[in-house]
Amino acid sequence: MGTLIILSGPSGVGKGPMTKALELHCESTGKKITKHVLYNNRAMRKGEADGVTYHFVSKKQMISMRDSNANRYHLFYLSEDKEKCQMLDKEKLSEELNKNDLVLLEILPTQTETPKSVAVSGGHVVREIFISPLSDDEFKALGISDGERDSAATAVMLTKLINRDTEDWEDQLKRAKRAADEIKEARMHSNGKEKVFFINHFGEDNRYMWDLLHDAIEKGQFNQADNLAIFQTFKRFINLVIPVKEY
Q1: Distance (Å, rounded) from C-alpha 162 to C-alpha 185?
Q2: pTM of this structure
Q3: Sorting pLDDT into bands at 50, 70 and 90, what band is 97?
Q4: Residue 60 burial by Cβ neighbours in a 10 Å radius (0-12, 13-18, 19+)
Q5: What is the CA radius of gyration of the chain?
Q6: Cα(43)–Cα(49) distance, rounded to whole angstroms?
Q7: CATH code at 145?
Q8: How far apart are CA 167 and CA 171, in angstroms?
Q9: Is residue 25 within 8 Å of residue 223, measured between CB atoms?
């Protein structure tokens, strides 16, 4: 039976590299893995692809699809004015879980209940992981008070987004500010042991990390022991998603 991996975290925190590392591991160990692609009505960004990052369609199209088959599609809004929205294809998700060992789903921590119910109703395991740039202990070690955490998280994520250079300054700032809200929302919607917080210091802006990963792919050395902190981070994430006893 397939396992649903619900992955969330601020833009630029490193979900892409972690996902790629997990795919490489599954490829080398014979596990079937796929990503469930949501529908989204926002504009496509630099480096994204339709049908890969999201199915990019209009809000009107999503509403029409949902209204024609409410049992299959779940529409949810990302903004109070209901202009930004995404949609889950429950039937497709169920099919993917039946055909694969792992199904990855990147979604906001506030929108996890429906995909979890789809998986659980089909007898599948769910693992929910939130990737954060800093841990609670690190905030404390840096002398950052609870009242300063939002601005600190914004500053950390803004640096990553600027270095990644996939959108203009205004969008980068908005997304960096949104990161602080996502971290708080993840805490609020954490149900005991159901959600795991994974700390990743190597965001998607880290070109050295990407270069190492690509070099390991080319040489076929990804699963070899490596003491580099970046590879240890990859391995910690893989062991979190796939416990060693399941290899």
Answers
A1: 24
A2: 0.77
A3: very high
A4: exposed
A5: 18
A6: 11
A7: 3.40.50.300
A8: 6
A9: yes
